[in-house]
What does this fold into?
Amino acid sequence: MGKYIPATPEERQQMLEAIGLSSTEQLYDVVPASVRVQELHLPSGMSELEVSQKVSAMAEANETFRSIFRGAGAYHHYIPAIVKSVTGKEEFLTAYTPYQAEISQGVLQSIFEYQTQMCELTGMDVSNASVYDGATAAAEAVLMCQERKRKGVIVSGAADPQVITVIRTYCESRDVPVTVVPAEGCATDPAAIQALLTKETAAVYVQNPNFYGVIEDVAAITNATHEAGAKMILGVNPISLGILKPPGEYGADIAVGEGQPLGMPLSFGGPYLGFMTCKSAMMRKLPGRIVGQTTDHQGRRAFVLTLQAREQHIRREKASSNICSNEALCAMTASVYLAAMGPKGLRQAAESSLSHAHYLASELGKRGFALRSGDRPFFHEFLTDCPVDPEVLNARLAERGILGGLPVDGGILWCCTELNSKADIDRLVSIAEEVCAQ
Amino acid sequence: MKLLFERSRPGRGSDLLPPCDVPVTELPGELCRESAPHLPEISEVDLSRHYTELAKQTHGVNDGFYPLGSCTMKYNPRIDEEMAALPGFTNLHPLQSPDTVQGALQVLHTAEQALCEITGMHAMTFQPAAGAHGEYTGLLLIRKYHRSRGDTARTKILVPDSAHGTNPASATMAGFTVVHVPSNAHGGVDLDALREVAGPDTAGLMLTNPNTVGLFDPNILEITQIVHNAGGLCYYDGANLNAVMGHVRPGDMGFDCVHINLHKTFATPHGGGGPGSGPVGCKAFLADFLPAPRVVERDGVYAFETPAHTMGQVRSFYGNFLVVVKALTYILRLGKEGIPEASAGAVLNANYLMKKLADRYTMSFDTLCMHEFVMSLEPQSHAIGVTAMDIAKRLLDFGIHPPTMYFPLIVHEALMVEPTETESPETLDEAAEIFLKILDEAEQDPESLHAAPHHTAIGRPDEVAAARNPVLRYTEL
Amino acid sequence: MYVTPADLKYTKSHEWVSEEDGFIVIGLTDYAQSALGDIVFINLPEVGDDVTAGEPFSDTESVKAVSDVFSPVSGTVAEVNEDLLDNPALVNESPYEAWLIKVENITDTEDLLSAEEYEALVAAEEG
It folds into this structure.
């Protein structure tokens, strides 16, 4: 079979002879005999047809939903056709990190374009080329802010619980104290943050819109943070920035977020995209790859990986982050998505998500699903009471091909995007009504 | 090449979304942005051509030989991509109830079992999104283990001086101090030096075997024994697993935990720098510390479970799931015969190419290599002023991606060559001829090499100017 | 070969040292800047930070390397040369004018080399 090895057995024998050996086994003579593997306990290899059938069967064993009303960190948006066609190009798919600038201008330029778009979107000065996901972006941002005389972070309890967990993991091993401020009425109380800020606080992390979809009082929190001399890290949903005030306009020092909504499918959680942008003053603390513009010896515009002395391959144990591989193809996906949508299309996606969510909230509200966030403004997610057991409701919705909201604290966290049409929303509401009536 | 922004014209673009079909919600003005972001406005045809042009200036594995040492740039099978694009995977919300994602959980569980068998481990997490992320996770396992025993004195991680930069950087992130262990004359770990530094403050050792000079350390059993005797644990950096999979297992060599680069060894594409996947496997005694959640199987039903003393999470959800689908597809294709055959093929190709170059290029170590070899341009650098960089840049003119340059740090003027098993003998023959021809050129006309490459889209970029005056975004918006 | 002003003192780790208005002034030697190549950034401490004899207080970045700069004295940073943050090339262009930091409240000084001794050290390192 040989699978993906071109050389035939005869050719391999000739190659062995060329290097003075007679058998493949001899290549491993250096391995102690006591630990040589005799045979792996795995199935035998299979033809492409058989593997295709086997893996397809696994895919088919999953239930996918025609209509999705669940977000909570992963969002179902329309992906323009051109996005997949561009990111499927084999040159982009099969290239390594662009170390050799002369034959990597395509990938380098696309990262430069991505960096520019993310700066525009978030209103910040500098972007890196991506990190693993939104949660690790937040954790890296917290570490970026730590100084000798200021150690510790205050985290909004209304942020995505997974993001808080990852921040805790990263901070625990670096001995950075984490204080989580409990959410009140699905929101962060600026006074509660202000009360905790000290001269030792390095940073405050707030998510906007937060896990419950609520638009926070970012201005008040940012003011309090800066008055205490700490850095403000704002976690944002990139689609929301089609409408909402970006971190830069609030005066945040670092903006981070999950870039998945920008053209990446849900994919059971990954690959996703962590984006990070910051003010110029923090440029040299930003982790990960960064592409810069320069010229070649003939004066032609050229792009290169730059500020590399920050990174692990040069700074080794003194590097502020260990990141090497990132999510480059996902960053390109986001870049193509943003270019295809344009400023108007992005605003439309945001506006449609916002309006669908408010329509759903209003319809559900008439049927006993009271908003837990009161009259606080929200974007495209909201938490409601549930007059019946949320699991029962979701099971009934699932029978009709609908993925209901996420059960949270006895209620349901709903999400709408441009994909949840009025007809879909009306259907959901009528099923909910049915279930509640029983 | 024009930038996206330079192709933008106000008013261009196409209607991708329908008008909103419910009353439009207006938010209070103070919550909204003052001005729209300056995103490009481009027609679809211009957008499409833009990326076609960028693709032409990008060298991937499909464009030619890519012997980038330490990166395992093997061919990425198309079936893997097709499987990962199945709607039954791509349309799954990560927070669906487990009964609706049994197939996805089966993917994770089956991949875990196969990779545990290949590495000699007992449990695995797929949460780490890349190799360095896996290193960090593995080191947190070691940290949690010692702390669970009240052993807080173990604050040091031993790292050979030939290690990848991520090793020491990960150790720092995980809260350890790094102690460097010198290499011996054969590029392996200096046992006496190791004995000297291993002690009651040793949390663990990070090692890749074969190491970064492409050699299998024959003292491996003794090395792991020394660390264990000192009370430390052994971490296997799986960056070079493609040399030995199916022939020897990290678990049998005495390692307690390991990360694997699915984007190297298991043929998933690198995407211009990512996404990767860096699953971490461990022996049973460490499994309770793994990140949450883990997938378990009971009576044919898959479920999520939180390990008893979990470190928490190192990323959201379950890692780069689609990359795992690709890797599993690859593993199923190769099976128990194909896996050792692939690694043997990688070792054979490396030795074959090394042999063809050894007469003219100085090999760092005069012995059979594993999946890669390191040559030093130090003699040429002294004699004719031609450096590893010059050779690398000239290779670009011949459509070959250069080897890794100036790594490992313990070899001067290093070029690290990793052909992988998916190159044919004639590709290797042709590459060898080019390598030798370039050396001829170097001897006849060194100046021409300093100016290489000659036929690429741009010449050598001014990296000093890029770093001194960083221009990191387009500003003429 | 390399400029080594006779009125300065030197360290084995290639810093120059002078005394000026009660401060100890520290910079990088001509040999050091030449060996480092094009310096693209210099990380400097802040005024008020403590420095310790024999320990790094700064590092210099070239495109592909980072090198520590060591303090020959223990004391407190009184002034840093902020011009270098914007224009690190000054160290390459005029190493003896482009001082890095001035230190006060000196509590400890390591043994320093004369210009002659330093030239001999460089000659030996050059082989």
About this structure: Chain A is about 40% helix and 15% strand. Chain A has a mean pLDDT of 97. Chain A has two domains: 67-71+342-437, 81-335. The two ends of chain A are 61 Å apart (CA to CA).
